[in-house]
Amino acid sequence: MNIEKYRQITQELDKYGAKLVAVSKTKPAEDIQALYNQGQRIFGENKVQEMTAKHEQLPKDIHWHLIGHLQTNKVKYIAPYVSLIHSVDSLKLLQEIDKQAEKNNRTIDCLLQIFIADEETKFGLSKEELHQLLSSAEYQSLQHIRIRGLMGMATNTDDEAKIESEFEGLKQLHAELKAKYFSHTDTFSQLSMGMSSDYHLALKHGATLVRVGSMLFGER
Ligand SMILES: *Cc1c(COP(=O)(O)O)cnc(C)c1O
After folding, report:
1. What mean pLDDT do residues 10-28 have?
2. Nearest atom in ligand 1 to 195's CA
3. Residue 130 is assigned to a structural domain of this protein
4. How many domains would you assign to the chain?
5. Cα-based torsion angle of the residue sequence 209, 42, 185, 131 in order, rounded to the nearest 10 degrees
6. How does the average pLDDT of the chain come out, rounded?
7. Which of 131, 169, 201, 202 could form a disulfide with 193 if both were Cys (CB 3.0 to 4.6 A apart)?
8. Pocket of ligand 1 (CB under 6 A)
9. What is the pTM of this model?
10. pLDDT at residue 145, as a whole number
11. Mean pLDDT throughout 151-166?
């Protein structure tokens, strides 16, 4: 756990008005508690079971963000407490989140994960799928979810110009969607992009949430 780095990052984020999602996947509860003691409240996990176990163990005012791929049949486990789901990539998943949110008498905040990299392995909606989803009657009937913005992961490369153009593309897509589908509300305000290796670049292109793990907690 690198407290010095934590201070540096949070100071830098403050200048941009962005927030840190401290990605604690695979790390023990003690590491999370140590960062919590420094004032950190938002933690990101990529597995439902792990996040739920940590939620049960740790202080209840932690905001838990799910950042990894989410299977429909696991939504019920996180619906009672999850603060933001970054990884929504289908209407079917969104419908299940809505259903479980209603059962828990709450509204669940979500980001739509967009495919911006040129790697086959990364999840996310294409632009076409995105427009299809947002203009569908099924989506528009959902009452217990709130789309707060977009999430994306850049290509894993040393080519900074390429990473920057992917982030800039996501920022522009966000602006386009805001004008087209969310002009009546100010809740569509979040752009989750940037990890340990590229969060500086993401900040330059308008990230409001950066997801940083190994730089804070050490290599996994
Ligand atoms: C693991 C992970 C991160 C954090 O990556 P680091 O390189 O450890 O900062 C960010 N986003 C997602 C979706 C992840 O799975």
Report:
1. 97
2. 9
3. yes
4. 1
5. 60
6. 96
7. 202
8. 23, 25, 46, 67-68, 153, 195-197, 211-215
9. 0.97
10. 98
11. 96
CATH of the domain at 203: 3.20.20.10
Which residue's CA is minimally distant from atom 7 of ligand 1? 196
Q: What is the pLDDT of residue 121?
A: 66
Residues constituting the chain:
220
pLDDT tens column, 76-97: 999 999 999 999 999 999 999 9
Residue 173 forms part of a structural domain: yes
In sequence order, the 6+-apart residues with CB closer than 8 A to the CB of 48 are 66, 70, 71, 74, 77, 78
CA distances from 171 to 145, 152, 175, 189, 202 (A): 22, 10, 6, 11, 10
Could you tell me the pLDDT band of residue 1, with boundaries at 50, 70 and 90?
confident
Specify the ligand 1 atom closest to the Cα of 86. Answer: 13
CA dihedral over 52, 57, 60, 65, signed as positive or negative: negative
Atom of ligand 1 minimally distant from the CA of 220: 8
Tokens linked to 58:
């740790």
Identify whether 158 is part of a domain: yes
In-domain check, residue 220? no
Task: Look up the domain containing 163 and give its range.
Answer: 3-215
Distance (Å, whole) CA 14 – CA 16: 5
